[in-house]
Every structure is written in structure tokens, then in C-alpha cells.
Amino acid sequence: MLSRRQEPPPDHQALEEAADWLMRLSGGELSDTERAEWECWKVSTPERVRAWGRAQLLQSKFGGLPPSLAMSALDRPSSPQRRAALGKLAMILAILPAAWGSWKLAESRQWSADYRTAIGQRRELTLADGSHITLNTDTAIDVLFDAHQRLIQLREGEIRVQTAPDISPMTRPFVVSTRQGRMQALGTGFTVRELQSRTHLAVLEGAVQVELADNRQGSPFIINAGQRTDFSSDHFGLLTATPRYIDAWTQGMLMADKMRLADFVAELTRYRRGFVRLDPAIADLRISGAYPISDTQRTLNMLAQTYPILVSGHLNGYWITLSAA
């Protein structure tokens, strides 16, 4: 998995150098001699040209360094704070520009939500009616209970829901809403994951009634226990069997059963900050096992011990490369 763009990012060395130059320029450290060195560096190789292009894009977005990193530019070059900021800055350059819009959108959704989790965090909630919700990594929800309904708005991420009977005088439906549709619980346990254009639903107990946001397919569709599907705002996907380990993440595990390494890495990166670059030569390698999501570095080491995979870390662990051993 290269990035959210088709074009791969510049190599990690060029990104690290670009981050260092950007930090030094922002801190006002350069002498005339060093500034001349920087002018030569940024045009010396194609990879450096591409890396500095991303640095310029970042500057144009913020008018300088991101506020969270700007103060670190004033620290000593050898300080731990500055080294950590340098790694974070290189990681930001790696995902620009394709991830910029979704990054800012997710950031705004997260901080205005009723409940949220950071990357790598999970959170369990007991609602006023006794229902239980578990939030997976990088998830944001709003909760609205009124006289007519019990509504969970999933803004981003993934949740596991276990509903409780409504004891109010009016029997209020329990509904989970995403941009693609509304899912009404029919006495049930289920998981919902919202992606950019589709919602993934897996029913573990009972049933869930789904109504699409643009309901052009007629009456709502009922998904029963043991079934899963995905849907856009106007179209249902295929109905398949729910894997027994679909909610293993609630126990802190990522399960793989002859899973393509590329798909496994895509899942694992949800739980870590930074960037994982996978050599296409091993993308189709099939792996199996149970892996901890609370310690992604341990998971990567487990892969290297079991399969012909070489794990290389750069930029203080922000950039990981998986290649054939």
C-alpha cells in the first residue's frame, strides 16, 4: 500500500531532509552559506524536488509550519522534542497532498463530536437506556435521545453496538445513522463502519433494518444475524456471511485468516500514526493469526518472525517499510 494517491511519495530520506530544511528555515537558523546549500539541495535530485514540492504545499496551507510544530523549530537541533517534531513533519509530507482534505475534515468532525477516540484508542460507553457502544480507533459519534428515537450519528470510524430494551413509555427505535443511510436495530448486536462513500454493516445478533439515504430501491432491507453487507446512499452491495472474528478489535486483536498482506497492512495502519509502505512484490502474501492492535510495532515484528518479511523503520518509527526478506 503506497498512499491514498496512485503516485508514491518521495523516498523517506528525501522527506526527512525536506522536513529538516523546512524546520531550519522556519526557525530562522540559516546563514547565507547554509541558504545557498539549501538552494542547491532542493533541485539536486528528482526525489528532492518532489519532497520540497510537498514542503511548499504545506507552507501554502499553513503560511509556515503547522501550529503544533512551529514552536519545536526554535528548539536545539539535538532536543528530543525537535527530533519528534521532525519525524511528525516528515510523516505529514509523506501523506500530502491527497490526504489533506480528508485529514482536515476528519479533524473537524472528531473535535466537535459528542464522543471520540484518537488513532489507536478504543472506548466503551454505556448509554442512558443501558445500551453499550464500543468505539474503535479514530471514531467520532453523536448521541441524541429524545421522546421519539434513540439516535447514534456515526460521523467517522467504526462502532460495535449492543442494544438494550427501551423502558420509556414510548417505545423508541434505536437507530444508527451514517451519510449513506439509517440502520434500525431489531433487538440486536452489530458493527457499523463508515468509509468515505460506503457503510459496512455486520449483524451479530437479531436483525437490523436498513434504509438508504437516497431510498430509490423501495422498502427498507433487513439484515439478519450472521449476515453482513455494505451500501452507498442509493445502492446495496452483496449480502455475505459475517466472519466470526469481525469484532475481534473490541478485544484488542486483529484476526487474519489467509488474508492478503496488503489488506492486513491496510487494517493495521488504522491503529498507528505514521506511514507504512509495502513492497508490491509481497502484497499478495497470505497470512494468518491473531495480532495485537494496541502495539502495532509488536505486530510487525511478529510478521517478520513468521513470514519472509523485512521490517525497516525510519523517521523515529513514523515511516515503516515492509519488503521481502
How would you describe this protein?
Helix 1 (12-26) crosses helix 3 (46-62). With 325 residues, the chain is α+β, with helices and mostly antiparallel strands. Strand 12 and strand 13 (240-241) form a beta hairpin. It folds into 3 domains: 12-98, no CATH class; 114-241, Jelly Rolls; 252-324, Phage tail protein beta-alpha-beta fold (3-Layer(bab) Sandwich), CATH 3.55.50. It has 8 helices and 18 strands. It has helices spanning 12-26, 32-41, 46-62, 67-70, 80-95, 100-112, 261-268, 296-306; strands at 115-116, 123-126, 132-135, 140-145, 150-162, 174-177, 181-185, 189-194, 199-205, 207-212, 221-224, 227-231, 240-241, 253-260, 275-278, 286-292, 309-314, 319-324. Strands 1, 2, 3, 4, 5, 6, 7, 8, 9, 10, 11, 12 and 13 form a 13-stranded mixed beta sheet that branches. It is elongated, with a radius of gyration of 23 Å. It holds the Pfam family DUF4880. Residues 16-56 form the FecR N-terminal domain. GO terms for molecular function: sigma factor antagonist activity. It comes from Pseudomonas moorei. This is FecR family protein.
Secondary structure elements and pairings:
Layout: H1 12-26, H2 32-41, H3 46-62, H4 67-70, H5 80-95, H6 100-112, E1 115-116, E2 123-126, E3 132-135, E4 140-145, E5 150-162, E6 174-177, E7 181-185, E8 189-194, E9 199-205, E10 207-212, E11 221-224, E12 227-231, E13 240-241, E14 253-260, H7 261-268, E15 275-278, E16 286-292, H8 296-306, E17 309-314, E18 319-324
Domain FecR N-terminal: 16-56
Organism: Pseudomonas moorei
Domain FecR protein: 114-209
